[in-house]
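Late entry, written up from scratch paper. The run itself happened at the end of the previous shift, but nothing got recorded in the book at the time, so transcribing now.
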Amino acid sequence: MKHFLLLALLAIFSLVNMQAQRNCASMEVLEQLMQEDPGYQQRMEAIEQHTNNFISHNYLEQRDVVVIPVVVHVVYRTSTENISDAQILSQIAILNEDFRKLNADVANTPPLFSGLAADSEIEFCMAQRDPSGNATTGITRKYYNRNSWGTSNAVKSPSQGGVAPWDATKYLNIWVCNIGGGILGYAQFPGGSTATDGIVVDYRYVGNTGTATAPYNLGRTATHEVGHWLNLRHIWGDATCGNDFVADTPVHNTSNGGCPAYPHYSTCTGTPVEMTMNYMDYTYDACMYMFSLGQKARMQAVFAPGGPRFSITTSNGCVPPETATCGTPTGLNATGITTSGATLNWTAVSGATSYTVQYRLTGTTTWTTVSTPNTSYTLAGLSSSSTYQYQIQANCNGTLGTYSAISTFTTNTETPTCGIPAGLIATNVTSSGATLNWNAVSGATSYNLQYRLSGTTTWTTVPTLGTSYVLNGLSAFSTYEFQVQANCNGTLGSYSALATFTTSSGGSGCGMPSGLNATGITQNSATLSWTVVNGANSYNLQYRLSGTTTWTAINVFSNVHVLTGLNAASTYEYQVQTVCKSSISAYSATATFTTSSGGASCGTPDGLNANNITTNSATLNWNTVSGATSYNVQYRLAGTTTWTTMTSVGTSYNATGLAVSSTYEFQIQANCNGTLGTYSAIATFTTNTPAPTCGTPGELNAINVTASSATLNWNAVSGATSYNVQYRLAGATTWSNASSAVNTYNATGLSASSTYEFQVQANCNGTLGTYSAIATFTTSAGGGGACSDTYEPNDSQFAGATIPVNQMVTALISSGTDSDWFRFSNTSDQPNIRIDLTSLPANYDVQLYLFSLLGSSNNPGTANESIVYNTGTVRTYYIHVYGNNGAFDPNDCYELSATISNTPLREQLDEVQMEETPDFVLFPNPASTEIMIDVITASETPTEIAIYDVSGRLVKRQVQQFTADATMTTIDISDLAPSVYTVRVKNGELNSSRRVVVNR
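Output as recorded:
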């Protein structure tokens, strides 16, 4: 007996323990959830069936851009973990760029894969409406004293200190916390509980600013995890040469870390070059920048009707609630007035959740603004003997009222005081002495200096008239504390904060840095360098704005350091100290540098207009601004206060996801290579009112098929009051028409052993939709045959009939369009599988599936077929029996058995184990017009190369004689339609297959 076996494309459920790396914990979380929820696997199987149906029917062409409302829950213990709104918004911007293929680095995609890089047509917005209908920023924050949260979903549980998700059917929930254990993030796949649905990202890997930590500081952790949330697997299938259920991604050996050099080759079957730049690999953020078209199809499938995230498409989370009013505070008065402070009071406003207080010195124009939840606020740091103005504004849960009328108060006159010295620093530090310095205090006639060894309690106090004092007789290599008090002609001020210094060792000493230099100076950065000091372990670098008193000190391990975050057009002072093994030097003399100025101005766009207006989109246009490299576009519903802001490199932008029959405002700002101009005047447009529509029925199928009747079913259409059904014999031109008030119809009077076509049209109270795609069914033979088939209807994987294991069953293929699907399960003590198809009345073939094709056998004629699959995966498997090129016999049955065993199964005749070593290479994959075959195992006999389509039909065949010196050939595939094909190579030495994707 001869047969061939496709290399197994392992399913996700067998692989959750085989991750090569641990920085994404989604697979471990999946395994845990499957243990806790036995029904999770069945739901994921149903989702895979839905996804395959979506892709096979090319429903992707019918999809619109999906906009997902996002809520971010920040759960923190420290202020560092409590990341800023700006960092969160940078992450949302990155998600929009990555999922819409607007990221600049997608241009780095190599030519082999550039045609596959996809605009996923998925967008994200910060939620503007919470589940209760209230206005929101889409960000929640909670403090909880927990060092790390792990991957147990505790961060999603209020009882464990976490935050419960918002309605997971309407929002994408993102939790930001300290996960710990080196985990960057994890996600929940579709089909799980809504109580834990969403993604979790460690606070160090969110967005591209703030705490974002290299090499995962470009926001791609969230992109990767949202991919899981939208049903994408890791590109290597979480196994050696595993399966990610996407046709156009190459088979990877395993995960890739770092930034692999291109091309990075795989030893697996299929395209030898790995798609390391895919977001679902494990490379650094800077080295991943694309989703594929196949991944787009999988993600869009979850939003289709019947998909697990379809409800997201009906969410109004991105639409702000209607604007309410908020009153104006009254009864303003000031109490507790001192020389430097006062308490401001006012009467509560109904519905107010907080208040904005603004105050200023009378006669000035700039307000200082603060917020408080109370009806009073205490001001501090005011000037004495000064009159202040203040007014109050109420905030009613995001709706702002008008400011109150201005009220005033005057601070008290200050009694004489004496200031506190600042700018304490020690210079000329030796092993036994130091010069202590401080800034002068206005009005001071002398100073009291006190110092002591750090860790002791007794001060040595000396008076001095100047702002420096030389200490002698100190201990070598010891740390001292000192502080200074001003004496203003008998009025003593408070002592300053403590300052410290450390004397040098008494030995050979530690050299002081010299040759200080500043280069590479920009508006906000400079590179500082100095001469290397022999024996230096590190250097203490301190710098400050010239004229200020406070140093910023850092320890560096090189004689070159880049300062960032500086002010433009500002002079800075800096000095350096050497740290040796057992001593430190004195600080060097002070050096200075000045940052560059802020650059030129940028103009304001004009000529704003909108065209191509539909019910939910519009193209916004404006005139070019000289020198502009990009433009910021912001738009909002007229009458609301919150802008949606996007970026465009051209002079137009297509705004989508808009509300129907609504007026929008928009304005444009030019960006001249980092210099921002002012926003333009506001322009407006109004979206169209949609015409009445009626949907198209889907998921057509036939059940209870007999020789003369069949029950036709389809999915209900929203708003439909009835349906028009038409059916006919396949090949006929005349339809039989009927009407049904529900989404089912019983067709009678049919011919036996005949294939029928049918389609359905929805009627929405007089508005007719379009007819559905044509579906087919075949009536039975009507009795009298040599055997009967008790398993019909089983024409699809979803309708697969359950059969017993380790025994023979019989069934019929009754027509050229009939095929049979069966399902069975192996067990943990008998995991190995063998499929036998025998007693064939015609040329039948057989395939074995989990979620994708695992193996097949298609011997010529009526020769028996068999598949061996030795695996440890305990799951429900599917068998597909079909006629080659439409072969069938309506009277004679075939025999089928599914054998399971606790020992590896072998082929009966030649005892050859079916798991074979790859013995030929096929490339490129995906391919367009030709493929190359490199036969590693040559043979003296001719080699047959055959190509089959997804139904198992032979579409191309050639015979080639290979030798040890000539093992390659080229096959023209320009006449094949874009699809997935199986290539089989067979000679006296090998019998093996590979999958190839043809696209153009």
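The first helix runs from residue 26 to 36.
(Scratch paper discarded after transcription.)
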